[in-house]
Specification:
Layout (H helix, E strand, L loop, with lengths): L1 E3 L6 H11 L3 E2 L7 H10 L6 H15 L4 E5 L10 H11 L5 E5 L6 H12 L4 H28 L8 H15 L3 H16 L10 E7 L1 H5 L7 H7 L2 E5 L3 H8 L11 H8 L11 H13 L4 E7 L3 H17 L3 E6 L5 H25 L2
Parallel strand pairs: 1-2, 1-3, 3-4, 5-6, 5-7, 7-8
The structure holds iron/sulfur cluster.
Length: 366
């Protein structure tokens, strides 16, 4: 069995670590690229959201590298994600790619369904080893998130253009190569030193922008056209409303780890505007917009794929949040036709507006 999974930002670092810890043969697809999207667009339904198309492309590319088994998360709606895995599997079968599909999702009848699937992947490993592997994957997720947060902070302040990207890539590769918890501890320390080594101009005025929206588009830089990097280079510090470790804590550990932001916090902040689950992260998008506004952020950027129902619901509510809290919000919708230059132009105009607003306030209150 040679296992693959779809890309979603740096998720591959954690999943690979977890599976290899259990001795599973892993095939990581090449990073998502124009080729990946072109394959997905060719075989996927036109009005499917972009994550489905990129997933399809990932699987086709992984097949070329010898993968024969797909591990996919599943769900129960109300958006299309609930039947993604089955649709992708059927499309792949139709075009001649024979995979075995393992969908990790809430069991239909009994918890043993989920345990049987995990047992199928991990073979004769003990449950204790499985728990240790999940722990190792989670530690990598935390390490990756800390590097990303550091990059968001230092990018708009770096003295040498591009220094953050170089540091970010080498720090990530250290985390990726660590093959045991002890090695990971050492890698984290070295990664911290690398990130701290970027020379900064601390006096530079920097805006703060909250980035929120659909989880795949938030985490996968190819799907959001590197929006975080562009915002950073335009002189604003970014905070993302979802990090990998937070998602794992909310959905796998049921929020048991303390000290992390949680889905519950976001949903309670959203409650004056949206009180029920609308699928995906629609409710969290509204809640994080409120939280960012309360925390004094200068602006918000919402990103999501074209036709994403939960985020369309959130988008229709965000103008109310914007008016009540006086925080400007820019919505960016991504699909295979979205061009990088258009996105950068809109970000430039948005950041220009935020700077003028801040300047105006400074004069008005000085
Ligand atoms: S949340 Fe949006 S992008 Fe994700 S599967 Fe649902 S509709 Fe598609």
């Amino acid at each position: 069995m040679r296992v693959t999974f779809p890309h979603m930002g740096n998720l591959y670092i954690c999943l690979k670590a977890m599976l290899q810890y259990l001795g599973v043969d892993v095939v990581v697809p090449p990073p998502s690229s124009k080729k990946t999207l072109t394959l997905g667009v060719k075989y996927g339904p036109e009005f499917a959201c972009m994550p489905l198309k990129l997933n399809l492309g990932n699987f086709i590319e992984a097949y070329g590298l010898g993968a024969d088994t797909i591990i996919m998360a599943g769900g129960c709606g109300p958006c299309r994600f609930g039947y993604y895995a089955q649709i992708e599997y059927a499309i792949l079968k139709d075009i001649g790619y024979e995979f075995q599909l393992i969908v990790i999702e809430p069991p239909e009848r009994h918890i043993s369904e989920l345990f049987n699937k995990i047992r199928h992947i991990t073979g004769n490993r003990s449950w204790w080893q499985v728990i240790q592997a999940i722990r190792f994957g989670y530690q990598k997720a935390r390490a990756v998130d800390e590097i990303e947060m550091a990059a968001f902070k230092i990018r708009p302040r770096e003295l040498v253009f591009g220094a953050t990207d170089i540091a970010y890539r080498s720090a990530l590769s250290l985390i990726d190569s660590a093959s045991s918890p002890n090695e990971l501890d050492r890698a984290k320390k070295r990664a911290g030193v690398i990130m701290a080594g970027v020379v900064l101009d601390e006096s530079r005025p920097v805006l703060k922008i909250g980035l929120t929206g659909e989880i795949f588009t938030l985490l996968e830089p190819y799907s959001n056209l590197d929006v975080e990097r562009h915002i950073g280079y335009l002189g604003a510090e970014v905070d993302r409303s979802i990090y990998l470790s937070e998602w794992v804590n909310d959905h796998l550990f049921l929020g048991m780890l303390k000290g992390l932001r949680s889905r519950k916090d976001a949903c309670s902040a959203a409650s004056p505007y949206l009180r029920h689950f609308v699928g995906g992260h629609g409710q969290e998008t509204v809640g994080s917009a409120v939280n960012y506004a309360r925390a004094g952020f200068d602006g918000l950027v919402q990103v999501f794929p074209f036709t994403c129902m939960p985020e369309i619901v959130a988008e229709s509510i965000l103008p109310e949040v914007s008016t009540e809290y006086g925080i400007p919000i820019l919505t960016l919708i991504m699909d295979e036709h979205t061009g990088k230059t258009g996105i950068i132009t809109r970000l430039e105009a948005f950041i220009d507006l935020l700077e003028r607003k801040k300047e105006f306030r400074r004069h008005a209150f000085s």
